Amino acid sequence: MISLNHTGISHTVFQFLGIPGLEDQHVWISIPFFISYVISLLGNSLLICIILTKRSLHEPMYLFLCMLAGADVVLSTCTVPQALAIFWFRAGEISLGRCITQFFIIHCTFVSESGILLVMAFDRYIAICYPLRYTTILTRALIGKIGVTIFLRSFCMIFPIIFLLKRLTFCQNKIIPHTYCEHIGLAKHACNDIRVNIWYGLFVIMSTVVLDVLLIFVSYVLILHAVFHMPSRDARHKALNTCGSHVCIIVLFYGPAIFTTLTQRFGRHIPPHIHILLANVCILVPPMMNPIIYGIKTKQIREQVAHIFIPKQK
C-alpha cells in the first residue's frame, strides 16, 4: 500500500480561467452568455408569473412547466453571472466553500430538472392514455408530493458528495480551467485517491439521469402505442401535438449533456476550450429555449403573453 506524502497544504481558494486558450476572446464570448441569460431570466420569470396568476393554467401540465421554469432560473443564475464576472472583470477567484456550494446547487438543479421532465412525460401519458381520469389521477395534492419528492431525491443524491469533497486535501494546482465548479473537476485537484468520488458520481448519474431517460423512453413508447391505435387521424395529430413541446425540451436538455459526456470520455484529442464551451451549452441553451418553445407551441400561453403585451382595446 503506497502512502501519499501530502505537504499538509490544502488550498482553500481557487482561480477560474474561464475558457482556457480563449482568454483574449472572453469579451466576445460574453455576448452570447449575456443575451442567453437575459432571455432565460425574462422568459422563465414571465412563464412563472403567467402560470401562477392565471387560474385557467392551474393544470398539471402547466404546474410542472412552472417547476421547470423555476429550476431554469436557479441554474442560470448560479452559473452565468459568475462566468460574466470572469469574462468582464477577470474576477475568477472563489473559495472552496463557495465552490462546493455552487457545485451542490448546479447538480441538485440538474437532477431536479431531469426528474421534472420525467413527470412531464408521465403527465402526457396519463393525458393521452387515460383522458377521462386525468384530473382525478393528477390532483394538486399529488402534484405537490411529486414536487417535494423530486427535490428530496436531488438533495439526498448530491448531499453525500459534499463530504466526499470535504475529506480531500487540495494540494495540487489551484487553477480551475472552467467557468463554474463541478464535482470531478474539483476532485481532480486533490492529492488523495478520488476513486470513491468517481464511482459515486457514476452511481448518481445512472440512478437519476440515465434512469429518467429510460423511463421517459418507456412512457413515449406507450404514448405512441396508444396514439396509433386511435381511430381518428385528427385525434392522433392532436395527441402528438400535445407532446411536441415536451419532446423538444427533452432533446435540448439531454442532447447537449450526452454529447458533452461522450466528448469528455472519448474525445481526448479535442481541445480543452471545446469541452468547456460544450459544458456551458448544457447550462445556457435549455433555460433560454424552454420558455420560447412553450410560448410558441402552446396556444394558452401564447394567448396570455399576447394579452400582456398587446392588450385588447375596450
Automatic annotation (TrEMBL):
The record, for InterPro entries, names:
GPCR_Rhodpsn, GPCR_Rhodpsn_7TM, Olfact_rcpt, OR51/52/56-like
Protein's membrane topology = Multi-pass membrane protein
Q: Where in the cell is it found?
A: Cell membrane; Membrane
Task: List all membrane-crossing ranges.
Answer: 27-50, 62-88, 100-122, 142-165, 198-227, 239-262, 274-294
| PROSITE patterns assigned to the protein according to its UniProt record, in alphabetical order | G_PROTEIN_RECEP_F1_1 (PS00237), G_PROTEIN_RECEP_F1_2 (PS50262)
SMART domains documented for this protein: 7TM_GPCR_Srsx
Which GO CC terms are listed, alphabetically? plasma membrane
**SUPFAM superfamilies (alphabetical):** Family A G protein-coupled receptor-like
Which segments constitute the G-protein coupled receptors family 1 profile domain? 43-294
Which keywords does this Swiss-Prot/TrEMBL entry list?
A: Cell membrane, G-protein coupled receptor, Membrane, Olfaction, Receptor, Sensory transduction, Transducer, Transmembrane, Transmembrane helix
Keyword Nucleotide-binding found: no
Q: What does the record give under GO molecular function?
A: G protein-coupled receptor activity; olfactory receptor activity
Q: What family name appears in the similarity comment?
A: Belongs to the G-protein coupled receptor 1 family.
- Explain the purpose of this protein: Odorant receptor. Putative odorant or sperm cell receptor.
* UniProt name for this protein: Olfactory receptor
Q: Which organism is it from?
A: Suricata suricatta (Meerkat)
